[in-house]
Amino acid sequence: MRELELIDALEHVLAPGGPRVVRWLGDDAAVVRGRGYAVTSVDSMVNGVHFRLGQLSPEEIGHRALAGALSDLAAMGAHPGEAYMTLGLPTGTRLSDAVSVARGAQALASRFDVAIAGGDVTAAPALTVAFTVVGWASDPGELVGREGAQAGDLVAVTGTLGGAGAGLALLDARVPADSVSEPVARALRERYAHPEPRFADGLRLSALGARAMIDLSDGLATDARHLAVRSGVSIELSLQRLPLADGLGEIAEQLGVDAGVFAATAGEDYELCACLPESARLGSADESNRGGAGQDEAPGLTWIGRVVEGPSGLAFTDAADGLAGYEHSL
Amino acid sequence: MRELELIDALEHVLAPGGPRVVRWLGDDAAVVRGRGYAVTSVDSMVNGVHFRLGQLSPEEIGHRALAGALSDLAAMGAHPGEAYMTLGLPTGTRLSDAVSVARGAQALASRFDVAIAGGDVTAAPALTVAFTVVGWASDPGELVGREGAQAGDLVAVTGTLGGAGAGLALLDARVPADSVSEPVARALRERYAHPEPRFADGLRLSALGARAMIDLSDGLATDARHLAVRSGVSIELSLQRLPLADGLGEIAEQLGVDAGVFAATAGEDYELCACLPESARLGSADESNRGGAGQDEAPGLTWIGRVVEGPSGLAFTDAADGLAGYEHSL
Prior knowledge:
2 copies of one chain form a homodimer. The first copy, chain A, is an alpha+beta fold. Chain A has 10 helices and 12 strands. In chain A, the strands form 3 sheets. Chain A has a 6-stranded mixed beta sheet, with helices on both faces. Chain A has a 4-stranded mixed beta sheet with strand order 3-6-4-5, with helices on one face. In chain A, helix 4 packs across helix 5. Chains A and B meet through helix 1, strand 2, strand 3, strand 4 and strand 5 of A and helix 1, strand 2, strand 3, strand 4 and strand 5 of B.
C-alpha cells in the first residue's frame, strides 16, 4: 500500500469538522479555533497489548481506540472537540482494513460532534491506533481532576462494571460460550468492543459538585487508588455494592473468582468513578430513579463507598483477600 | 518496570510548563489556556522504521522525535506551545532508558519554551516515541499551508540539504568512515541525531509573504511535490542550486550517486521549503547575506527554482535521470 493512496482514502472517510476547523488533513498541521482552555489527552492501543486482531473488526478497533481516549475527557467533565489519529501499520496491512479503522472511529466521532482534524500514518511492527483528543472548557474551574477528594465525600460509579472483562473472557474462550444466554453474551461482547465515553455523566457529575473523578480503564481497584493517592485520602469501597453487568455472576463463577473482585479488577469498562460531597446524593436521587443519564443512556449512579481520613490508599471493606495490594503493572 | 514507577520518574524529568499550563501530568487530561487558534500535529518515530537503537542514544531519540513533530509547526509559521509524549516500550526496556528519552525531549522543549504537558506510556513491540505538538496563532491568516503557491513564485529552502542522510549513511557504514574528515563526519551525524525545528525561519518566511510552505522530512523531491499538488501548480527546481551540506560531495561520490539527487531524496533534514512572490527575494537579500536566521542559527535562504503554469507536479530541470517519477511509499 502506498502512503499517499492511503491518505487519499482516509480523506474520503473522515468528515471535515464544522466551522471551528480552519485547516484539516493535508497540511503540516491542523488549525482549529480555540475556546478558552484546551483539555488534551493521548491514548494508544496496540495489537497484542490492548486488543487482538481476529477478536475485533477493524471498525471496532477504531471505535475502541477513540472511545478510550475520549473517555479521559469525559472524566474531566469536558466537552469534546477534536481528535487526531495516528495509525501504525505493519507491512502487508490491507488498505481496506486501515480505512475501516478510520471509519469506526469516524462513526463514534460523529455521534459526539468530534472532528478528526488530523493524523499521521507510519509503518510499525504491530497495528497501533493512537488518538490525541482535545476538549474545551471556558472555565477551568468546571473541570474535575483527581486531587480534590475530601474525607466525608461519597464515591459513585456510573453504569455497570465487569461487562467488558466478561466479554473479553468470552472472546478469549476462558469461559464456555454457553455460560450465559446468547443475548447476554452479545451484550457483554458489545461492552468490550464498543465502550462508550460517558460525556453526559461527566458533565452531570461535575454539575453535582464532583471533587475528584477518573474513568475506569484499568479497573476500579487501580483507578480509585489513583484518586486516593492524588487526593491524599483513604477511600473505602464495598465490593458488594458494585453494580455488576448482567451475566457477570455466571462468568465469574466459571472463572472461579468473586464477581465483585472481577468487576473491580477486569478493567476496560470506561465508566466514571467520582467523589462527591454527601449533599450530592440527594441531588442525584431523582435522576438515578429515572434510570437515564441523557445522550449515552447510561444507567444512574451507584454509591459504592466513601472517603475517610487516613493514609492515602484504597481498601475494600468487605474483601476477603488481598485486593488492597492489587496494583497494575506495565 | 512498573508503570507507576516510570510515570513518577517522568514527572521528575519533565518540567511543568509556565502559567499557561493549568493541569499537567497525573490527571486524565492536561488543561492549557488557549490563545486564539490551535495548530496541532502528530508524529511518531518507531525503532527499526525511523531510527535504530544503537545508532542513537535514548536522549537523541527523544530529541529527534520531538524535533520532527515541532518541525511541522515551524512549517506553518506557528509559535510553539505544548507537547504531549507517548512512549511505547518493549518488554525489558530499562527505566533509565525510558527516562533518558524524556530527558532528550525536555532539553529541546526547554529551548523553545514548549511545555511537555501530558502523555501516555504503553507496552509496544518496538520502542515508539510519538509526540502531539500544539502551537498557537492569534490570526489563522498568519499561518502558511501547502495550497497557496502561484505561478511566478520563487522557491526557497533554508539551511543545507543532505546532511542528515549523509550522517545516516555513515552510521549505517554504507560509506567508509574516512570518506570525510572527523569534524565533518561529526557534524553530519549531528544533522541526523539532532535535527532543529526551524521556528525562526518559519516565522521569517511567513513575514516575507510565503504562500506555501512545508518541512523537508521525506526529502525535497517528495515534499516539494506535495506543495505542487496541493497548490495545483507545477514546480521547477534545479538540482545544481541545492545548498549541499559540507562533505556531501564526498559521501555521494562514495555512494555512486549525484550529490544533488542525494540531497533532494535522502530526507530528514527538517529544513523548510517555501514558495514566495518574487518581491520577497529583495526583502530577504540583506538577511541572506548576513547568513543568520535568528535563534536557530540557520544559514540564509537559497533560491532553488520557481512555480510555473502547468499540470500539478514537480520537475528538476537539470536532472538527467527519472527523478521526476520519484515517489515516497510507505
